[in-house]
User: What shape does this take?
Amino acid sequence: MTEVQPIVAEIQQAVQKRRNFAIISHPDAGKTTLTEKLLLYGGAIQEAGAVRARRNQRHATSDWMELEKQRGISITSTVLLFEYDGFTINLLDTPGHQDFSEDTYRTLAAADNAVMLIDVAKGLEPQTRKLFEVCRLRRLPIFTFVNKLDRPGRPALELLDEIEQELGLTPCAINWPIGMGDQFQGVYDRQAHQIHLFQRGERGRKSAGELVIDQGDPQVEQYLDQYLYHQLKDDLELLDGVAPAFDISALQRGEMTPVFFGSAMTNFGVELFLRYFLKFAAPPGGHTSTQGVIPPDYPEFSGFVFKLQANMDPKHRDRVAFIRVCSGKFVKDMTVQHPRTGKTIRLSRPQKLFAQERESLEVAYPGDVIGLNNPGVFAIGDTVSTGGKFRFPGIPSFSPELFAYLKNPNPAKSKSFQKGVTELTEEGAVQILYSTDESRRDPIVAAVGQLQFEVVQFRLQNEYGVETILEPLPYSLARWVVGGWSALERVGRLFNTVVVKDGQERPVLLFKNTWNLQQVQEDHPDLELSPVSPLD
Assistant: This one.
Protein backbone atom coordinates (compact mmCIF):
# COMPACT_ATOMS: atom_id res chain seq x y z
CA MET A 1 0.00 0.00 0.00
CA THR A 2 2.88 2.37 0.81
CA GLU A 3 4.21 2.01 -2.77
CA VAL A 4 0.88 3.10 -4.25
CA GLN A 5 0.39 6.27 -2.23
CA PRO A 6 3.13 8.45 -3.78
CA ILE A 7 1.86 7.75 -7.30
CA VAL A 8 -1.74 8.40 -6.21
CA ALA A 9 -0.68 11.74 -4.70
CA GLU A 10 1.17 12.61 -7.92
CA ILE A 11 -1.91 11.78 -10.03
CA GLN A 12 -4.24 13.75 -7.73
CA GLN A 13 -1.99 16.81 -7.95
CA ALA A 14 -1.85 16.57 -11.77
CA VAL A 15 -5.63 16.13 -12.05
CA GLN A 16 -6.32 19.30 -10.05
CA LYS A 17 -4.28 21.28 -12.57
CA ARG A 18 -6.01 19.85 -15.64
CA ARG A 19 -9.13 21.07 -17.41
CA ASN A 20 -10.62 19.58 -20.53
CA PHE A 21 -13.48 20.93 -22.65
CA ALA A 22 -15.19 20.95 -26.03
CA ILE A 23 -16.93 23.89 -27.70
CA ILE A 24 -20.38 23.25 -29.20
CA SER A 25 -22.14 25.66 -31.54
CA HIS A 26 -24.11 26.15 -34.72
CA PRO A 27 -22.01 26.89 -37.83
CA ASP A 28 -20.88 30.53 -38.09
CA ALA A 29 -21.36 31.30 -34.39
CA GLY A 30 -17.61 32.00 -34.20
CA LYS A 31 -16.32 28.72 -32.68
CA THR A 32 -13.02 28.60 -34.52
CA THR A 33 -12.39 32.29 -33.81
CA LEU A 34 -13.03 31.75 -30.08
CA THR A 35 -10.72 28.72 -30.15
CA GLU A 36 -7.95 30.81 -31.69
CA LYS A 37 -8.36 33.58 -29.11
CA LEU A 38 -8.18 31.13 -26.20
CA LEU A 39 -4.93 29.80 -27.68
CA LEU A 40 -3.73 33.39 -28.05
CA TYR A 41 -4.24 34.09 -24.35
CA GLY A 42 -2.67 30.75 -23.46
CA GLY A 43 0.47 31.79 -25.34
CA ALA A 44 0.13 28.78 -27.66
CA ILE A 45 0.06 31.06 -30.74
CA GLN A 46 1.30 34.61 -31.28
CA GLU A 47 -1.30 35.70 -33.82
CA ALA A 48 -4.82 34.44 -34.34
CA GLY A 49 -5.81 33.47 -37.88
CA ALA A 50 -9.15 34.83 -39.02
CA VAL A 51 -11.33 32.09 -40.43
CA ARG A 52 -11.83 33.28 -43.96
CA ALA A 53 -11.27 31.59 -47.30
CA ARG A 54 -8.83 34.30 -48.39
CA ARG A 55 -5.30 33.58 -49.52
CA ASN A 56 -3.76 36.63 -47.87
CA GLN A 57 -4.89 35.64 -44.35
CA ARG A 58 -3.48 33.00 -42.04
CA HIS A 59 -5.44 29.79 -41.76
CA ALA A 60 -6.91 29.00 -38.38
CA THR A 61 -4.58 26.77 -36.33
CA SER A 62 -7.32 24.26 -35.64
CA ASP A 63 -8.24 23.90 -39.33
CA TRP A 64 -5.36 21.77 -40.59
CA MET A 65 -6.99 19.73 -43.37
CA GLU A 66 -6.47 21.07 -46.91
CA LEU A 67 -10.21 21.23 -47.63
CA GLU A 68 -10.77 23.20 -44.40
CA LYS A 69 -8.21 25.77 -45.51
CA GLN A 70 -9.80 26.07 -48.95
CA ARG A 71 -13.35 26.53 -47.67
CA GLY A 72 -12.75 28.31 -44.36
CA ILE A 73 -14.82 25.78 -42.37
CA SER A 74 -14.07 23.22 -39.66
CA ILE A 75 -14.90 19.68 -40.77
CA THR A 76 -12.75 17.55 -38.49
CA SER A 77 -12.12 17.49 -34.77
CA THR A 78 -8.67 17.92 -33.29
CA VAL A 79 -7.00 18.52 -29.93
CA LEU A 80 -5.31 21.74 -28.85
CA LEU A 81 -3.24 21.59 -25.67
CA PHE A 82 -2.08 24.80 -23.99
CA GLU A 83 -1.10 26.20 -20.59
CA TYR A 84 -2.68 29.12 -18.74
CA ASP A 85 -2.19 30.34 -15.18
CA GLY A 86 -0.63 27.07 -14.05
CA PHE A 87 -3.31 24.87 -15.66
CA THR A 88 -2.87 22.35 -18.48
CA ILE A 89 -5.86 22.74 -20.78
CA ASN A 90 -6.99 20.20 -23.39
CA LEU A 91 -9.34 21.94 -25.83
CA LEU A 92 -11.18 19.34 -27.90
CA ASP A 93 -11.96 21.24 -31.08
CA THR A 94 -15.02 19.90 -32.88
CA PRO A 95 -16.34 20.28 -36.45
CA GLY A 96 -18.47 23.38 -36.94
CA HIS A 97 -20.42 21.93 -39.86
CA GLN A 98 -23.57 19.97 -39.00
CA ASP A 99 -22.74 17.29 -41.56
CA PHE A 100 -19.97 16.21 -39.19
CA SER A 101 -21.99 16.09 -35.98
CA GLU A 102 -21.07 12.44 -35.39
CA ASP A 103 -17.40 13.43 -35.05
CA THR A 104 -18.58 15.92 -32.42
CA TYR A 105 -20.53 13.20 -30.57
CA ARG A 106 -17.37 11.10 -30.34
CA THR A 107 -15.30 14.04 -29.14
CA LEU A 108 -17.83 14.91 -26.43
CA ALA A 109 -17.28 11.40 -25.03
CA ALA A 110 -13.76 12.55 -24.11
CA ALA A 111 -14.77 15.94 -22.65
CA ASP A 112 -15.25 16.86 -18.98
CA ASN A 113 -16.93 20.21 -19.73
CA ALA A 114 -18.67 21.89 -22.66
CA VAL A 115 -18.74 25.51 -23.78
CA MET A 116 -21.94 26.40 -25.61
CA LEU A 117 -21.26 29.26 -28.02
CA ILE A 118 -24.24 31.41 -29.04
CA ASP A 119 -24.46 34.18 -31.65
CA VAL A 120 -26.02 37.22 -29.91
CA ALA A 121 -28.15 38.01 -32.96
CA LYS A 122 -29.45 34.46 -33.54
CA GLY A 123 -29.70 32.92 -30.08
CA LEU A 124 -30.15 29.16 -29.84
CA GLU A 125 -29.88 27.46 -33.25
CA PRO A 126 -30.71 23.88 -34.33
CA GLN A 127 -27.18 22.43 -34.22
CA THR A 128 -26.57 23.94 -30.78
CA ARG A 129 -29.77 22.39 -29.44
CA LYS A 130 -28.85 19.00 -30.91
CA LEU A 131 -25.37 19.03 -29.38
CA PHE A 132 -26.71 20.33 -26.07
CA GLU A 133 -28.79 17.16 -25.78
CA VAL A 134 -25.63 15.06 -26.20
CA CYS A 135 -23.96 17.09 -23.42
CA ARG A 136 -27.02 16.56 -21.23
CA LEU A 137 -26.91 12.80 -21.82
CA ARG A 138 -23.27 12.83 -20.74
CA ARG A 139 -24.09 15.14 -17.80
CA LEU A 140 -21.39 17.60 -18.74
CA PRO A 141 -21.18 20.98 -16.98
CA ILE A 142 -22.11 23.56 -19.64
CA PHE A 143 -20.68 27.08 -19.85
CA THR A 144 -22.33 29.59 -22.20
CA PHE A 145 -20.46 32.26 -24.15
CA VAL A 146 -22.67 34.76 -26.00
CA ASN A 147 -20.54 35.94 -28.92
CA LYS A 148 -20.41 38.81 -31.43
CA LEU A 149 -21.43 41.61 -29.01
CA ASP A 150 -19.54 43.97 -31.34
CA ARG A 151 -22.49 43.53 -33.74
CA PRO A 152 -26.18 44.37 -33.26
CA GLY A 153 -28.08 41.55 -31.56
CA ARG A 154 -30.91 40.51 -29.28
CA PRO A 155 -31.27 41.86 -25.73
CA ALA A 156 -29.18 39.95 -23.18
CA LEU A 157 -32.17 39.30 -20.91
CA GLU A 158 -34.09 37.81 -23.83
CA LEU A 159 -31.25 35.36 -24.50
CA LEU A 160 -31.12 34.30 -20.84
CA ASP A 161 -34.85 33.64 -20.94
CA GLU A 162 -34.49 31.58 -24.13
CA ILE A 163 -31.80 29.38 -22.53
CA GLU A 164 -34.02 28.75 -19.52
CA GLN A 165 -37.24 28.13 -21.46
CA GLU A 166 -35.85 26.00 -24.29
CA LEU A 167 -33.04 24.06 -22.61
CA GLY A 168 -34.32 23.84 -19.05
CA LEU A 169 -31.02 25.25 -17.77
CA THR A 170 -30.91 27.98 -15.15
CA PRO A 171 -28.71 30.75 -16.64
CA CYS A 172 -26.54 32.84 -14.35
CA ALA A 173 -24.86 35.88 -15.93
CA ILE A 174 -21.29 36.04 -14.60
CA ASN A 175 -20.59 39.18 -16.59
CA TRP A 176 -22.91 41.66 -18.28
CA PRO A 177 -22.43 43.54 -21.56
CA ILE A 178 -21.97 47.32 -21.59
CA GLY A 179 -23.60 48.35 -24.87
CA MET A 180 -23.84 46.36 -28.08
CA GLY A 181 -22.72 46.72 -31.69
CA ASP A 182 -20.78 49.94 -32.29
CA GLN A 183 -21.50 50.95 -28.69
CA PHE A 184 -20.07 47.78 -27.13
CA GLN A 185 -17.57 49.10 -24.56
CA GLY A 186 -16.83 46.06 -22.42
CA VAL A 187 -18.38 43.95 -19.67
CA TYR A 188 -19.22 44.21 -15.99
CA ASP A 189 -17.86 41.36 -13.83
CA ARG A 190 -20.72 40.60 -11.43
CA GLN A 191 -18.55 38.36 -9.23
CA ALA A 192 -15.72 40.84 -8.66
CA HIS A 193 -17.91 43.99 -9.01
CA GLN A 194 -15.55 45.42 -11.62
CA ILE A 195 -16.02 47.10 -14.99
CA HIS A 196 -13.74 45.88 -17.81
CA LEU A 197 -13.45 48.43 -20.60
CA PHE A 198 -11.70 47.13 -23.68
CA GLN A 199 -9.48 48.84 -26.22
CA ARG A 200 -10.01 47.66 -29.76
CA GLY A 201 -6.94 46.14 -31.36
CA GLU A 202 -6.13 45.38 -34.99
CA ARG A 203 -9.16 43.15 -35.78
CA GLY A 204 -8.51 41.45 -32.46
CA ARG A 205 -5.35 39.71 -33.63
CA LYS A 206 -3.31 40.61 -30.57
CA SER A 207 -4.45 40.34 -26.97
CA ALA A 208 -6.87 43.18 -26.27
CA GLY A 209 -5.89 45.89 -23.78
CA GLU A 210 -8.38 46.61 -21.03
CA LEU A 211 -9.04 49.06 -18.25
CA VAL A 212 -10.43 47.57 -15.02
CA ILE A 213 -12.39 49.90 -12.73
CA ASP A 214 -14.09 49.01 -9.45
CA GLN A 215 -17.82 49.58 -9.26
CA GLY A 216 -18.53 52.95 -7.67
CA ASP A 217 -15.17 54.47 -8.68
CA PRO A 218 -15.86 58.08 -9.79
CA GLN A 219 -13.60 57.74 -12.86
CA VAL A 220 -16.10 55.32 -14.43
CA GLU A 221 -18.05 58.29 -15.76
CA GLN A 222 -14.92 59.67 -17.44
CA TYR A 223 -14.57 56.58 -19.60
CA LEU A 224 -18.16 55.47 -20.05
CA ASP A 225 -20.96 57.21 -21.93
CA GLN A 226 -23.62 58.49 -19.49
CA TYR A 227 -26.42 56.63 -21.25
CA LEU A 228 -24.52 53.31 -21.18
CA TYR A 229 -23.53 53.82 -17.55
CA HIS A 230 -27.13 54.38 -16.44
CA GLN A 231 -28.37 51.50 -18.60
CA LEU A 232 -25.78 49.23 -16.94
CA LYS A 233 -26.93 50.31 -13.45
CA ASP A 234 -30.58 49.65 -14.36
CA ASP A 235 -29.75 46.22 -15.82
CA LEU A 236 -27.72 45.23 -12.76
CA GLU A 237 -30.47 46.33 -10.39
CA LEU A 238 -32.94 44.17 -12.31
CA LEU A 239 -30.57 41.21 -12.44
CA ASP A 240 -29.74 41.38 -8.75
CA GLY A 241 -33.45 41.37 -8.00
CA VAL A 242 -34.55 38.39 -10.09
CA ALA A 243 -31.48 36.35 -11.12
CA PRO A 244 -30.36 33.36 -9.01
CA ALA A 245 -26.97 33.37 -7.32
CA PHE A 246 -24.28 31.29 -8.95
CA ASP A 247 -24.17 27.73 -7.57
CA ILE A 248 -21.15 25.68 -8.63
CA SER A 249 -22.77 22.41 -7.52
CA ALA A 250 -25.77 23.14 -9.80
CA LEU A 251 -23.30 23.70 -12.66
CA GLN A 252 -21.60 20.37 -11.96
CA ARG A 253 -25.00 18.63 -11.91
CA GLY A 254 -25.87 20.13 -15.31
CA GLU A 255 -28.70 22.28 -13.93
CA MET A 256 -27.14 25.76 -14.17
CA THR A 257 -25.04 27.41 -16.86
CA PRO A 258 -22.79 30.41 -16.15
CA VAL A 259 -23.25 32.91 -18.99
CA PHE A 260 -20.51 35.17 -20.35
CA PHE A 261 -20.85 37.94 -22.93
CA GLY A 262 -18.11 39.08 -25.29
CA SER A 263 -16.69 39.20 -28.80
CA ALA A 264 -14.13 36.62 -29.88
CA MET A 265 -13.25 38.62 -33.00
CA THR A 266 -12.21 41.69 -30.98
CA ASN A 267 -11.05 39.72 -27.88
CA PHE A 268 -13.60 41.48 -25.65
CA GLY A 269 -14.37 39.25 -22.65
CA VAL A 270 -12.40 36.20 -23.80
CA GLU A 271 -9.68 36.22 -21.13
CA LEU A 272 -12.20 37.01 -18.39
CA PHE A 273 -14.21 33.98 -19.53
CA LEU A 274 -11.08 31.79 -19.52
CA ARG A 275 -10.21 32.79 -15.95
CA TYR A 276 -13.69 31.97 -14.66
CA PHE A 277 -13.83 28.76 -16.67
CA LEU A 278 -10.69 27.50 -14.91
CA LYS A 279 -12.19 28.50 -11.56
CA PHE A 280 -15.55 26.75 -12.09
CA ALA A 281 -14.87 23.87 -14.53
CA ALA A 282 -14.94 20.25 -13.42
CA PRO A 283 -11.54 18.55 -13.20
CA PRO A 284 -11.19 15.10 -14.79
CA GLY A 285 -13.64 12.72 -13.09
CA GLY A 286 -14.36 9.01 -12.87
CA HIS A 287 -15.44 6.86 -15.82
CA THR A 288 -17.97 4.02 -15.76
CA SER A 289 -16.52 0.64 -16.79
CA THR A 290 -17.45 -3.03 -16.73
CA GLN A 291 -15.88 -3.14 -13.24
CA GLY A 292 -17.66 -0.06 -11.87
CA VAL A 293 -16.48 3.55 -11.81
CA ILE A 294 -12.73 3.98 -12.36
CA PRO A 295 -11.61 7.17 -10.53
CA PRO A 296 -8.87 9.32 -12.09
CA ASP A 297 -6.48 8.58 -9.18
CA TYR A 298 -6.80 4.82 -9.69
CA PRO A 299 -3.09 3.93 -9.77
CA GLU A 300 -3.28 1.85 -12.95
CA PHE A 301 -3.26 3.62 -16.32
CA SER A 302 -6.42 3.42 -18.43
CA GLY A 303 -7.87 5.29 -21.40
CA PHE A 304 -10.11 4.94 -24.44
CA VAL A 305 -9.83 5.73 -28.14
CA PHE A 306 -12.36 8.40 -29.15
CA LYS A 307 -10.98 9.34 -32.56
CA LEU A 308 -8.77 8.01 -35.35
CA GLN A 309 -7.31 10.30 -37.99
CA ALA A 310 -5.48 9.28 -41.16
CA ASN A 311 -2.90 11.42 -42.94
CA MET A 312 -2.52 14.33 -40.51
CA ASP A 313 1.03 14.36 -41.82
CA PRO A 314 0.70 13.91 -45.62
CA LYS A 315 4.44 13.22 -45.96
CA HIS A 316 4.26 10.09 -43.84
CA ARG A 317 0.74 8.77 -44.58
CA ASP A 318 0.27 8.20 -40.87
CA ARG A 319 -2.70 7.11 -38.79
CA VAL A 320 -3.10 8.56 -35.32
CA ALA A 321 -5.30 7.25 -32.50
CA PHE A 322 -6.53 9.92 -30.06
CA ILE A 323 -6.65 8.42 -26.55
CA ARG A 324 -8.31 10.14 -23.59
CA VAL A 325 -6.41 9.28 -20.41
CA CYS A 326 -8.96 8.26 -17.74
CA SER A 327 -6.85 7.06 -14.82
CA GLY A 328 -3.32 6.58 -13.59
CA LYS A 329 -0.15 7.88 -15.18
CA PHE A 330 0.77 7.29 -18.80
CA VAL A 331 4.47 6.72 -19.40
CA LYS A 332 6.11 6.44 -22.81
CA ASP A 333 6.76 2.85 -23.96
CA MET A 334 4.47 1.34 -21.33
CA THR A 335 2.77 -1.98 -22.10
CA VAL A 336 -1.03 -2.16 -21.89
CA GLN A 337 -3.81 -4.69 -22.35
CA HIS A 338 -6.20 -4.33 -25.28
CA PRO A 339 -9.38 -6.18 -24.20
CA ARG A 340 -11.10 -6.16 -27.62
CA THR A 341 -8.32 -8.20 -29.21
CA GLY A 342 -6.90 -9.80 -26.06
CA LYS A 343 -3.44 -8.59 -27.06
CA THR A 344 -0.73 -6.79 -25.13
CA ILE A 345 0.48 -3.62 -26.83
CA ARG A 346 3.50 -1.40 -26.27
CA LEU A 347 2.55 2.28 -26.50
CA SER A 348 5.63 3.70 -28.19
CA ARG A 349 6.12 7.10 -29.82
CA PRO A 350 3.31 8.90 -27.95
CA GLN A 351 2.65 12.46 -29.09
CA LYS A 352 1.36 15.66 -27.57
CA LEU A 353 -1.21 17.03 -30.02
CA PHE A 354 -1.69 20.58 -31.21
CA ALA A 355 -3.87 20.40 -34.33
CA GLN A 356 -1.56 19.10 -37.08
CA GLU A 357 1.58 19.75 -35.05
CA ARG A 358 2.89 17.08 -32.74
CA GLU A 359 5.79 16.62 -30.38
CA SER A 360 7.10 13.70 -28.38
CA LEU A 361 5.43 13.04 -25.03
CA GLU A 362 6.98 11.32 -22.01
CA VAL A 363 4.09 11.30 -19.50
CA ALA A 364 0.38 12.15 -19.37
CA TYR A 365 -2.33 12.23 -16.71
CA PRO A 366 -6.15 11.94 -16.54
CA GLY A 367 -7.82 14.60 -18.68
CA ASP A 368 -4.95 14.62 -21.18
CA VAL A 369 -5.27 13.41 -24.75
CA ILE A 370 -2.34 11.58 -26.31
CA GLY A 371 -1.75 10.66 -29.93
CA LEU A 372 -0.45 7.21 -30.84
CA ASN A 373 0.56 5.89 -34.23
CA ASN A 374 -2.10 3.38 -35.19
CA PRO A 375 -0.99 0.71 -37.64
CA GLY A 376 -4.46 -0.85 -37.76
CA VAL A 377 -4.42 -1.81 -34.06
CA PHE A 378 -7.07 0.48 -32.60
CA ALA A 379 -10.74 1.08 -33.33
CA ILE A 380 -12.94 3.91 -32.08
CA GLY A 381 -14.20 3.07 -28.58
CA ASP A 382 -11.31 0.72 -27.69
CA THR A 383 -10.15 0.59 -24.05
CA VAL A 384 -6.47 0.26 -23.09
CA SER A 385 -5.23 -0.26 -19.53
CA THR A 386 -2.49 -1.71 -17.35
CA GLY A 387 -4.83 -2.88 -14.60
CA GLY A 388 -7.29 -5.66 -15.35
CA LYS A 389 -9.36 -6.36 -18.43
CA PHE A 390 -12.20 -3.94 -17.77
CA ARG A 391 -13.70 -1.95 -20.62
CA PHE A 392 -15.21 1.49 -20.85
CA PRO A 393 -18.48 1.83 -22.81
CA GLY A 394 -17.94 1.95 -26.56
CA ILE A 395 -18.86 4.88 -28.78
CA PRO A 396 -21.82 4.05 -31.03
CA SER A 397 -22.43 5.03 -34.64
CA PHE A 398 -25.66 6.92 -35.32
CA SER A 399 -28.15 6.43 -38.13
CA PRO A 400 -26.88 7.96 -41.39
CA GLU A 401 -29.31 9.77 -43.69
CA LEU A 402 -27.59 9.64 -47.11
CA PHE A 403 -26.40 6.54 -48.95
CA ALA A 404 -24.46 5.96 -52.18
CA TYR A 405 -22.37 3.29 -53.84
CA LEU A 406 -18.73 4.42 -54.00
CA LYS A 407 -17.16 3.27 -57.26
CA ASN A 408 -13.55 3.11 -58.37
CA PRO A 409 -13.51 3.45 -62.19
CA ASN A 410 -9.80 2.63 -62.43
CA PRO A 411 -8.98 -1.07 -61.66
CA ALA A 412 -5.26 -0.22 -61.48
CA LYS A 413 -6.01 1.85 -58.38
CA SER A 414 -7.97 -0.87 -56.57
CA LYS A 415 -5.33 -1.36 -53.85
CA SER A 416 -5.15 2.37 -53.09
CA PHE A 417 -8.96 2.55 -53.20
CA GLN A 418 -9.34 -0.25 -50.64
CA LYS A 419 -6.65 1.24 -48.39
CA GLY A 420 -8.27 4.69 -48.50
CA VAL A 421 -11.78 3.40 -47.83
CA THR A 422 -10.54 1.24 -44.94
CA GLU A 423 -8.60 4.04 -43.27
CA LEU A 424 -11.29 6.70 -43.70
CA THR A 425 -13.88 4.27 -42.33
CA GLU A 426 -11.72 3.43 -39.31
CA GLU A 427 -11.48 7.10 -38.39
CA GLY A 428 -15.25 7.53 -38.68
CA ALA A 429 -15.21 9.99 -41.62
CA VAL A 430 -18.22 8.04 -42.94
CA GLN A 431 -19.83 4.69 -42.27
CA ILE A 432 -19.38 1.92 -44.80
CA LEU A 433 -22.02 -0.70 -45.50
CA TYR A 434 -21.97 -3.61 -47.96
CA SER A 435 -24.59 -5.27 -50.10
CA THR A 436 -25.58 -8.81 -49.11
CA ASP A 437 -25.36 -9.64 -52.83
CA GLU A 438 -21.79 -10.99 -53.12
CA SER A 439 -21.64 -9.97 -56.79
CA ARG A 440 -21.97 -6.29 -55.78
CA ARG A 441 -18.58 -5.39 -54.28
CA ASP A 442 -18.78 -1.59 -54.33
CA PRO A 443 -18.98 -0.29 -50.77
CA ILE A 444 -22.01 1.78 -49.74
CA VAL A 445 -20.97 5.09 -48.22
CA ALA A 446 -23.39 6.19 -45.48
CA ALA A 447 -23.28 9.77 -44.23
CA VAL A 448 -25.17 12.30 -42.10
CA GLY A 449 -24.71 15.10 -44.64
CA GLN A 450 -23.75 15.73 -48.26
CA LEU A 451 -20.46 17.40 -47.33
CA GLN A 452 -19.21 14.12 -45.88
CA PHE A 453 -19.43 12.59 -49.37
CA GLU A 454 -17.45 15.50 -50.80
CA VAL A 455 -14.77 15.20 -48.11
CA VAL A 456 -14.36 11.45 -48.67
CA GLN A 457 -14.01 11.90 -52.44
CA PHE A 458 -11.64 14.86 -51.95
CA ARG A 459 -9.45 12.93 -49.50
CA LEU A 460 -9.38 9.78 -51.64
CA GLN A 461 -8.15 11.93 -54.52
CA ASN A 462 -5.82 14.17 -52.48
CA GLU A 463 -4.35 11.61 -50.06
CA TYR A 464 -4.59 8.31 -51.95
CA GLY A 465 -4.56 9.40 -55.61
CA VAL A 466 -7.92 7.74 -56.39
CA GLU A 467 -10.76 9.33 -58.34
CA THR A 468 -14.19 7.98 -57.43
CA ILE A 469 -17.80 8.06 -58.63
CA LEU A 470 -20.85 8.20 -56.36
CA GLU A 471 -24.08 6.42 -57.29
CA PRO A 472 -26.80 7.73 -54.91
CA LEU A 473 -29.25 5.29 -53.33
CA PRO A 474 -32.88 6.22 -52.50
CA TYR A 475 -32.70 5.64 -48.73
CA SER A 476 -32.84 8.05 -45.79
CA LEU A 477 -32.84 5.84 -42.68
CA ALA A 478 -30.73 2.99 -41.33
CA ARG A 479 -31.61 0.67 -38.44
CA TRP A 480 -29.43 -2.02 -36.87
CA VAL A 481 -31.17 -5.33 -36.13
CA VAL A 482 -30.97 -6.05 -32.41
CA GLY A 483 -30.16 -9.74 -32.06
CA GLY A 484 -28.29 -9.96 -35.35
CA TRP A 485 -28.86 -12.35 -38.24
CA SER A 486 -30.71 -14.94 -36.15
CA ALA A 487 -33.34 -12.33 -35.17
CA LEU A 488 -33.71 -11.38 -38.83
CA GLU A 489 -34.16 -14.99 -39.92
CA ARG A 490 -36.96 -15.51 -37.39
CA VAL A 491 -39.17 -12.83 -38.97
CA GLY A 492 -38.86 -14.16 -42.52
CA ARG A 493 -39.28 -12.01 -45.61
CA LEU A 494 -39.43 -8.22 -45.19
CA PHE A 495 -41.03 -5.63 -47.46
CA ASN A 496 -40.37 -1.86 -47.79
CA THR A 497 -36.70 -2.27 -46.82
CA VAL A 498 -33.37 -3.61 -48.04
CA VAL A 499 -30.93 -5.62 -45.93
CA VAL A 500 -27.23 -4.69 -45.97
CA LYS A 501 -24.37 -5.38 -43.55
CA ASP A 502 -21.96 -3.08 -41.72
CA GLY A 503 -18.19 -3.38 -41.35
CA GLN A 504 -18.62 -5.89 -38.50
CA GLU A 505 -20.91 -8.06 -40.69
CA ARG A 506 -24.01 -7.07 -38.66
CA PRO A 507 -27.39 -6.74 -40.40
CA VAL A 508 -28.65 -3.22 -41.12
CA LEU A 509 -32.02 -2.32 -42.68
CA LEU A 510 -32.25 0.67 -45.04
CA PHE A 511 -35.56 2.52 -45.48
CA LYS A 512 -36.65 5.15 -47.98
CA ASN A 513 -38.66 7.05 -45.37
CA THR A 514 -40.15 6.87 -41.87
CA TRP A 515 -43.42 5.50 -43.28
CA ASN A 516 -41.61 2.40 -44.60
CA LEU A 517 -39.91 1.98 -41.22
CA GLN A 518 -43.24 2.17 -39.40
CA GLN A 519 -44.77 -0.40 -41.78
CA VAL A 520 -42.02 -2.92 -41.02
CA GLN A 521 -42.35 -2.30 -37.28
CA GLU A 522 -46.13 -2.77 -37.43
CA ASP A 523 -45.83 -5.95 -39.51
CA HIS A 524 -43.11 -7.39 -37.24
CA PRO A 525 -43.58 -6.07 -33.68
CA ASP A 526 -41.09 -8.63 -32.32
CA LEU A 527 -38.29 -7.31 -34.55
CA GLU A 528 -36.22 -4.90 -32.47
CA LEU A 529 -34.46 -2.17 -34.44
CA SER A 530 -31.97 0.42 -33.19
CA PRO A 531 -30.91 3.80 -34.71
CA VAL A 532 -27.55 3.32 -33.00
CA SER A 533 -25.02 0.60 -33.78
CA PRO A 534 -24.40 -2.10 -31.13
CA LEU A 535 -21.39 -1.33 -28.95
CA ASP A 536 -19.93 -4.83 -29.16
User: Anything to note?
Assistant: The first strand starts at residue 18 and ends at 24. The longest helix spans residues 226-242. Confidence is low (pLDDT under 50) at residues 48-77.
